[in-house]
Amino acid sequence: MGGAIALAALPNRLAAAERGGGGPVARAFAAAGGRDRLARVRSLSWTGVARTMLGTVPVVLHVESRIEPFIRSRADTWLTTEGRGAARTVMIERDSAFVVQDGAQTALPALQARFERQRLGAFAYLLLAPAFVSAAGPNRLNAAHDGYPPIALTLGRDGAIATADYVLSAPDPSAAAIRQHFRFAGSVRAQGVRFPRVTTMLQDGRPSLQLTIIDFSVELSPA
Question: Is residue 55 predicted with pLDDT exceeding 90?
Answer without folding.
Answer: no
